[in-house]
Specification:
This protein is mainly alpha-helical. The protein has one domain. It is 49% helix and 6% strand. The protein has 7 helices and 2 strands, in the order H-H-E-E-H-H-H-H-H. Strands 1-2 form a two-stranded antiparallel ribbon. Helix 4 crosses helix 7. The chain starts with a helix and ends with a helix.
């Protein structure tokens, strides 16, 4: 068993700076509780043991306490993972990113889109799931 661990290739996770740039958030502020901390942890939204990847779109910057309290999320609960990590406040950095992208680029108002399609409870999480896929495909194409 220990020999198997020694043979695993080293993981290449994105830097804290790269994750913060993707979500347009700060490198020293927890995405969940919004507290300021040195040494934020890279939290997988969908756990690696369930196939979650090490890409920026599946990582959130959390303090050790919020990361420690984070439940384990399978792919089918990805919306819940986004809700846990990002939806504890309504106007955080990534909310501004979404509003700007949809309003300026696509001429769509976020609140109208959420109200008309998903309702207020899970709307942000479902919207971010769709945009995450869109952003990831654009990042790969670039």
């Amino acid at each position: 068993m220990i020999a198997d661990l020694a043979m695993r290739p080293r993981r290449k996770t994105p830097s804290v700076k790269r994750i913060a740039e993707f979500w347009e958030c700060e490198t020293d502020r927890c995405c969940k509780c919004r507290g300021f901390f040195k040494g934020l942890e890279r939290a997988h939204l969908v756990d690696r043991c369930y196939g979650g990847l090490d890409g920026v779109q599946n990582l959130a910057l959390l303090c050790w306490e919020c990361h420690g309290m984070m439940p384990s999320f399978k792919p089918e609960r990805e919306d819940d993972a986004y809700e846990y990590a990002f939806c504890s406040w309504r106007e955080g950095p990534w909310h501004r990113k979404v509003r700007k992208e949809l309003s300026e680029v696509h001429g769509v108002e976020v609140d109208d889109l959420i109200r008309d399609n998903w309702g207020p409870m899970w709307g942000w999480a479902k919207l971010i799931r769709e945009l995450k896929l869109f952003w990831a495909s654009n990042e790969e194409a670039a």
